[in-house]
Amino acid sequence: MPRLLLIIPTLDRSGAEKQFCLLAEGLSKQGIEVEVVALTRGGPMEAHLAAADVPYSILGKRNRFDLTALRKLRKFIIEREPDVLLSCLFAGNSYSRLATIGMGSRRPKILISERCVDSWKSSWQHWLDRRLRSRTDLMIANSQSVSDFYAAGGFPKDRIRVIPNGVVSPSQPELTKAELCEEIGIPAESKLIAFVGRLAPQKRLKDLLWAMQMLRHSRPDAYFLLIGEGPQRSELEYFAQDADAATHSRFLGHRDDAASLLHLIDVFWLASEFEGMSNSLMEAMACGKPVVVSDISPNRELVEHGKEGWIANLGDPAGFTQYTLKLLEDPEAAQKIGAAGQQKMESEFSIKQMIDRFHSLIAEVCS
C-alpha cells in the first residue's frame, strides 16, 4: 500500500485546499495510506478530514521562511517514511522540496501541484522554483494553460502531467431565494448575478462593477452579489459608490454557504486576468447556471462561447453587460446554456475522475 503525504499551506476552505482534502478522502478510500500536513494553520477543512478518518497535522509556520517549521516538516517526513510527497501552491511546493535536501536514497518521490497561471510570482520566487526543479519528479498542472505557462518558463515538458480539478455539485441552500433577497435588502423577484471568490486585483472586480452600473439601467431588477473577502474589499466598496453601482451591488463577505447560494442565482460572472481552473466557476456550472467569463485560456478550457456560457474580452465591462442581458431576456436560452454546463461538469470534471487520475499517477510513480 503506497504511503502518501499531502502538504498544503492551510486547512482553509479555499479552492486548492478543498480540492486536496477531497483528494485525500478519495485516495484513502482507494487503499492509499494518506496523511495531510498543513504548514501554517488549521481551518474549516479539519472537520472534513476528521469525518473521512484522514489523519492530519498542523506545523504552525509563522512567516515566509520559518526554519522551525521546515525542520518540523523534515522530521515528520523522516518519521513517516512516505513513498510520495504531493504538495500544492508555492509554500507547499517549496517546503516539500527544501525539507528533503540531503535525504539521498531515503527521499520520497516528490510531486508538486501548480494551480494557477502564476504571473504574480516575483523574481525571487521564480528563482527558487528554478533551483528546485531538479528535486521535482513530476509537476501536476490543473489545466493545460498552467502546464503551458510552466513549460514556457523552462520546466521540462516530459515531467508535467495535467489533471483537471474535480467538482462536486454544491448542496442545496438552507434558505430560499426570497429569504436571501430579504436578508440583503432587495426585492424578492430580483435577478441575481454573482461572483464568488477572493476580492483581489487579479479578479478585475472593478470591471464587473462597471458592468453592473451599465446593466442596472436596462435591468433595474438585477443585482450583483460579491461573495467573499479579500484585500480589495474596502477599495471596491468605495469604487462601487463612485461608479454609481452601489445601489445594485451587495458585498456579502465570507459565507460558509457560498457554494450553495449558487443554486439561487441567475448568472455567474468571472472577469479574472489569470486563473488556474476556477473552482467557483465550475461549481456555478455544476449548479446549471449560465456564466459570463473573461477571455483567458483557463476559462476557455471550461466554457465554449455560446454553448456553456459567454466569453467577454478581458477588461470589457460592456461585453459582460451585453451577454448578461442576452441571458436575462431569454430565460429559455439561459436554461439551455446552464444545462450544457452542468452536463460538461458531470461528464468531464467529476471528483471521481480527478481521484482516479491521481491514483493512477501515484501507482505509476511508485512502480
UniProtKB/TrEMBL annotation:
GO terms for molecular function: glycosyltransferase activity. Residues 14-167 form the Glycosyltransferase subfamily 4-like N-terminal domain. Residues 182-343 form the Glycosyl transferase family domain. Keywords: Glycosyltransferase, Transferase. The keyword Cell membrane does not apply. Its EC number is 2.4.-.-. Gene3D superfamilies: Glycogen Phosphorylase B. PANTHER family: GLYCOSYLTRANSFERASE (PTHR12526), SPORE COAT PROTEIN SA (PTHR12526:SF638). This is Glycosyltransferase EpsD. It comes from Thalassoglobus polymorphus. The lineage of its organism: Bacteria, Pseudomonadati, Planctomycetota, Planctomycetia, Planctomycetales. The gene is epsD_1.
